């Protein structure tokens, strides 16, 4: 269903192919755009702005 290629950030073509599973960091994959013949990197996990679900502040326990 989902196309293998990520859209090119330069020309927005989807005619791209994955070159490597890892780019300059572990969370990006390297892609090659056949349209404008440039390499680019795309973040694997789409949205990196995940909220950290931290537990609420726990008040001091009642001392007895
Ligand atoms: Zn391109």
What does this structure look like?
The chain is mainly beta. The protein has one domain (1-45). Helix content is 0%, strand content 27%. It is built from no helices and 3 strands. It has strands spanning 16-20, 28-33, 38-43. The protein has a 3-stranded antiparallel β-sheet with strand order 1-2-3, with no helix packed on it. A hairpin with a 7-residue loop joins strand 1 and strand 2. It is rod-shaped. Bound molecules: zinc ion. Residues 8, 10-11, 13, 33, 35-36, 38 line the site of zinc ion (ZN).
Features:
binds zinc ion, mainly beta, single chain, about 60 residues, 3-stranded antiparallel sheet
Question: Would you kindly provide a brief summary of this structure?
Answer:
By secondary structure, this protein is an all-beta fold. Helices cover 0% and strands 27% of the residues.
Blueprint of the fold:
Elements: E1 16-20, E2 28-33, E3 38-43
Antiparallel strand pairs: 1-2, 2-3
The structure holds zinc ion.
The site of zinc ion has 8 residues, from loops.
């Amino acid at each position: 269903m989902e196309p293998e290629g990520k859209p090119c950030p330069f020309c927005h073509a989807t005619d791209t192919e994955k070159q490597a599973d890892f780019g300059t960091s572990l969370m990006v994959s390297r892609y090659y755009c056949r349209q404008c013949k440039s390499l680019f990197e795309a973040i694997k996990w789409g949205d990196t702005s995940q909220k950290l679900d931290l537990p609420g502040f726990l008040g001091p326990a009642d001392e007895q």
